[in-house]
Structure formats: structure tokens, C-alpha cells
Amino acid sequence: MGERKYLKWYNKVGYGSGDIAGNVVYAFLSSFLMIFLTDTIGMNAGIVGTLMMVSKLFDGVTDVFFGSLIDKTKSRMGKARPWMLWAYLGCSAMIAALFFIPANLGDAGQYAWFFIAYTLLNAVFYTANNIAYSALTALVTKNGSERVQMGSIRFIFAFGTSLLIQTITVDAVKALGGGAAGWRTMAIIYGAIGLIVNTISVFSVKELPEEELNESESALRVEGEENSCREWEADGECALEEPGWGEAGPGASVEAGGQEEKYGLRKAAKLLLSNKYYLIICVMYILMQIFTATLNMGIYFMTYILGNASLLGVFAWAINIPLIAGLVFTPILVKRWKGMYKLNLMGYILATVSRGLVIVAGYLGNIPLMLLFSGIASLGMSPLQGDLNALIAECSEYTYLTKGKRIDGTMYSCTSLGVKIGGGIGTAFAGWLLAASGYVANAAAQSQSCINMLYVMYLWIPMVINLIITILLVRLKVEQANAALAGEE
Length: 489
Fold this sequence. Notes:
mainly alpha
């Protein structure tokens, strides 16, 4: 008997469209915020990079905090949807604020304005929205295939939006008058689009009742009681026997028999850190976002090495179209390969080799070959992009099977944590490298040290990151671990 289906096609498409809103924030800022600040406002790339890194110190706290708040939320809309809906109002406001830095504030005032707006956007509003959005994968369906489909559709919208933003933004800003005024109008337009699409996405799905989410799991826990308790005995306790921690903390799970168990932030963090697969995915997520942020700095490479900023859109097509094509077929391939492990690993081996060939083509100055190998690399990366949310759901299931605790919202904090820390590190690192290389904003020609650094940033760093992710994927056998714990192997 097949798995029960919970979603219609329009639920999946509606959910996936929410990443249009997410990438209105992420793709727009990661591709263009730095060059706006350096070449339009006149801010120092190194200082901006440092402020971005300092801002990320707040993110390590707020991701787990909002994840645990989602876990304990009870409303007519469910756990995650209220946070996803209301948090985007703040996202739209902060997108505009980052491009409305007043010219009369002076240097210190401008840096302070940027830091406050950037921190509020990332540490508060985007965190709450993105964690809630990701957690919905586990809250609206219990069907593994549907979760993979949701992830694939989501990232089709994500990369499609990124492609569109990278393709049209430079020319659109010029058409809107150029300069600070053009960028500000563009920010308002993107913020409004994101707000509308996010709202549509929120109301396109409904969360399952908590009783339904846990009904089959109670039976599983009785069958797997011996295994679960054996895991807990290493810590001196068994979740099936304890009546509850009695702490009115920010998270909750449902014990066998229907008793709700409360737990605090410290306990939630302990559960996360005890899940090795969660830690691997967190590191991979951060690396993937550094990869994307580094590629998004390609506007400097296009401007000062290839001599045409508009080539950013051409490379965006070469990168994103294969990604989207791969995402379309990811659910079919996962089913054919009977799981995600081999598909993801083989895909990233292909991606790593192809990024190496991009380096060769780049030093040869062969743009067609750079485009070709960039596309092949993206095709190899697409399966992991499509099934990543399903992998996180598997990680959440691993915590449940081994510890007897369900912490879906907290578990999905790794998605927002990875997006912000990875994206922040990537953009900040780019700022530091630009400053260290002697980059001069709007110069007719850059120094040789700056040119060399642009090659490192756009060609070498992405290849090295892909290699590290490939090594990590070798260890990511969470599907096999869950099957063994559930007695299926």
C-alpha cells in the first residue's frame, strides 16, 4: 500500500512560490547590495564586510530561538504559517531601508544605519519567515515523496527568481534613472512583489493537526521502545519513562499516550548537537550559501575582467537553467535511485569536476566554455538543492527515533542559519578580499593584485567549496540510519 497523499498540485506550487519572496531578499541583496554600497554610496568594502560579520553574531541566537518559538506556537493557522506571514512585513521594510541610507548622516551614521537595518532584516524578520517556511515541509504532509516534490518546486522558484533578478536588475536600475534613486525604486518594487507572493504562499497550504502528525509515531515508538531507550541510557534517562521535564520552555513534543512534554532552549540545542546528520547539513548549508554569495559577487568579475557588467545575466542563465531543469527531474530520480544518498553524492562529484574545468576556461579567457562547464556543474548540484528539505525532515525523524523528541521547527533552524551565516560570510569575505586587494570603486582599470583576487573569488573558491561538500555527502547516510532504527533493514 502506497503512502497517503496530502497535497494537490496547486498546494505544492503555491508553497513553492514562497521562495520568490525569499529570493527577492536573498538574491537581490547578495548580488547587488555590496556594489551599491561601494560604488553608489561610497562606503568601504572592508568595513561593510566587517559589519556583516558582526551582524551574524546575533543570528546564531535568533535562529534557534525562533525555531523553538515555532515549535510551541498554537493558533488557528498552525505553528509556522503565522510567523511566515507577519515576518515578511519587516522584510519588505528593511529591504527598502538598506537602499535608503541618507546621504547627510555622515560616514559613521551611514554605517550605523546599514548595520541596524541589515541586522533587523537578517536576525529577526528573515529568520522568522524563512524558518517557518522551511518547517512547513514537515507540517503539511507526512508523505516523503511529497516533501521531495515540495523542495524541488520551491527551488525551481528560488533559482528562477534569482535568474530573473540577476538578468534584469542592472538594466532596470538604469531605466529607473540610475544612481541611488534607481536602486531605491527597484528595492521598493522587489519588496512589494515579495510581500504579495509570500502572502499567497502562506494561504496555499494548511498545517496538519498535531494529533495527526503524531498518530503513527506513537505506534512506532512502542515498537521501537527498546532502541530509543538504549540511546537515552547513554545520557542516563529514557524518554519513554520520564513524565516530562516540567519546564515551561519554548519547545514541546508529544510523548506516547498524548502527554505533551515541554523543553527549554538548552535541551533543544542539546538535541540538535547530538544529531550528527543535522550538524553535517548545517555545515553544508553554510558552504552552499557561501558558494552562492561568492558567485553573486561575479558582477565585479564581469565588470573588471570580462568588461561587461551585463554578462552577469548571461552567466545567471547558464547557471540557473540547468539547476531548474535538474530540479524538475529530482523527485523522479530520487524514486528511481531508491533514495537521496547516491544521487546527491554523484551529482556533487560531477559538479566539483565541472567547476575545476570552469577554472581552466576562465584562465584561457574562453567565455563559451566557462558558460558550458558552469551549466554542467549546476546540473550536478541540482538534486541536493531539490531534496535538501526532505533530508532535514529525515534528520528530524532521526532525532525522534533515537531521542523520542519531535522538534521540527528547531530542526529547520539550520536552513535560515545556513542562509544567513553562509550568505553573510560569503559577502563579507568578498568585501574583505576586495579591500585587501586594493579595489578602487568605479576605477577605469583595477590593479593586478585586484584582478588576481577576482579570479580567486569567482573561480577557485566555488570549486573548493564543492569539493568539501562532496566529502561531507559521503557521511550523510541519514536515510539508511532511519531505516535501520525503524527495523526496515
